[in-house]
Write a structure and sequence with these properties.
CATH architecture of the largest domain: Orthogonal Bundle
Order of helices and strands: HHHHHHHHHEEEHHHHH
Number of helices: 14
Radius of gyration: 28 Å
Largest sheet: 3 strands, antiparallel
Strand order of the largest sheet: 1-2-3
CATH class of the largest domain: Mainly Alpha
Length: about 350
């Protein structure tokens, strides 16, 4: 039975001593009941989720932490609806059911695979910290997703998009007011394979002249928080470099960045929205910035580049990642090389 010291100090709202003592006794009884429940069942799922997120905050960015929190909130709500409030109530059957019924029905296959991976990471920590007595992570299977192969733009689609960028008009600031600058931003992504967030932050002052091309070195936005900064190099033609230098810049130091936005994802969303509008007006389906990066990668593969070279240009963590997303086009590259070798033998 806890003593009065175990109850947090708080006003009773009573002026009568007897009533105040009755309120105090009720609080003591409540905390005693809670302590007994904790001793029997262990911590709640919500308590463990909060501790887990706090322990990962130093190594994960706010966006990733938010994704973990969303998943664990879904897990907690799913379990509580089935009267499973404590971490010790988790079972393999309950978790496998959560995978099929607790996640949104329209969730993409790759997103579901990522969500289940986050769930298994939480379960691994729960076992390590003795919140659960059984290593459930060894029994809850991973979700194997079939990754959608990236589709590049056709030459005709690219012409429509670039022409559509020049047709932007209206607005008092930003990309709508500077269509030529916006088109150059799209060309930069197409020519270098940079992600939209990195292209927006392009800084001409750190671009140096190589033997044949201009070399731009930058630290990509997309990286694990615990990783050391790993600079990437990308290459610009003299034509594009000169065109960007001479265009109307949106800020004094950077041609494509404007405004005092703390969240740089805002500008990436602006580019996405502009491209969606262009796609609707010129009849290009699925018109979005990342497909410019896909087009860059596929063009390089079909042009005879080695897979590891394309992976390095894209800044992927491994060649396996590149092959996963562009497997179909790697096969096309192999067929092209076979045809070239056969033609050379015939000519010989």
């Amino acid at each position: 039975m806890p003593s009065g010291d175990a109850v947090p100090r708080q006003p009773t709202g009573c002026t009568d001593l007897r009533k105040a003592e009755a309120v105090r006794a009720a609080h003591i009884a409540h905390f005693a009941k809670q302590a007994k429940a904790d001793a029997v069942h262990g911590p709640t799922i919500a308590e463990c989720a909060d501790k887990y997120l706090a322990s990962r905050r130093h190594e994960l960015g706010e966006k990733t932490i938010g994704q973990h929190r969303l998943l664990l909130d879904r897990l907690r709500n799913f379990c509580e609806a089935r009267n499973a409030f404590y971490i010790g109530n988790l079972t393999v059957d309950l978790l496998e059911t959560f995978k099929t019924e607790g996640l949104p029905a329209d969730m993409k296959d790759t997103s579901k695979a990522t969500a289940v991976a986050k769930l298994r990471c939480f379960l691994r920590t729960a076992y390590r910290r003795n919140w659960i007595a059984e290593s459930l992570v060894d029994k809850v299977t991973a979700h194997r997703a079939v990754y959608e192969q990236k589709e590049p733009y056709s030459d005709d689609e690219l012409k429509k998009i670039l022409d559509g960028a020049l047709a932007l008009n209206g607005g008092t600031h930003g990309y709508a007011k500077h269509p030529k600058t916006f088109r150059l931003l799209l060309e930069l992504m197409l020519e270098t394979g940079m992600r939209v967030g990195d292209a927006i932050r392009y800084d001409p002052s750190v671009t140096v002249k190589g033997e044949q091309l201009w070399i731009y070195t930058f630290v990509p936005q997309k990286k694990k928080k615990i990783d050391l900064p790993k600079p990437l190099e990308t290459y610009l033609t003299g034509r594009l470099k000169t065109a960007i230098d001479q265009c109307e810049w949106l800020s004094p130091k950077r041609p494509f960045f404007y405004g005092a936005f703390r969240n740089e994802a805002y500008l990436a969303n602006e580019v996405y929205n502009r491209m969606q509008s262009i796609g609707e007006s010129c009849g290009v389906a699925d018109c979005r910035p990342h497909r410019l990066r896909d087009t860059f990668a596929v063009r390089k593969l079909l042009g005879g580049f080695q897979l590891d070279d394309v992976s390095r240009l894209l800044g992927h963590s491994s060649v396996k990642v590149t092959e996963t997303y562009y497997a179909k086009w790697v096969a096309s590259r192999k067929r092209r090389l076979e045809r070239l070798v056969a033609e050379s033998l015939v000519n010989a």
